[in-house]
Write a structure and sequence with these properties.
- The chain is an all-alpha fold.
- It has a domain of 32 residues.
- The protein is 64% helix and 0% strand.
- The longest helix has 29 residues.
- The radius of gyration is 31 Å and the shape is elongated.
Amino acid sequence: MPEHEQDGQEREFDLSWADSAEHKEPSARARMLAARWKDNPPGPVPFRADPDHRSSGRRSRSSWISTAIVLGSLAAVILLLGYINFRPPY
């Protein structure tokens, strides 16, 4: 058996052996966070931010204006293309 095939089979065996381990060591980031949170645990964080954290309705208003501008521009392009295609030739 060629040497590179044997290395591949050994690697496959090692990976399957490692994947079947009952206890897996946590990542470096997980160990770092666990050590940090041991003395100073983080506070609860909501899944979604409270509506009070938004800027007082200004963001939703600007998103509506942006949407209207995009849709209006799209409609203008469609109308312009339709006018160009359906104009009678002279």
